[in-house]
Predict the 3D structure of the following.
Amino acid sequence: MGTTYHFRVISKNSLNASSSSEDYTFTTYSPITITITSPLNGATINKPYVMVKGTVTNSTGNETLMNILILSKRLYLLSYHRIRQ
């Protein structure tokens, strides 16, 4: 999972009177993991395009399959499919 942070806002006016908010929280999540399944690591690409396939896994273990076309130095997302766990 991630890290939970707590914060509170305290304000003071020109008469030195102050007020504070209640306690708020937010959570940061662990980074995603990207696994490229095609092309293989170290493969030589002899074309002006390449189809990259792989998965993106978030901190809760949910995966998304990705198909990305790289054509003339531009990325095109062709498809994605979420896998529920």
Notes: The chain has a mean pLDDT of 81.
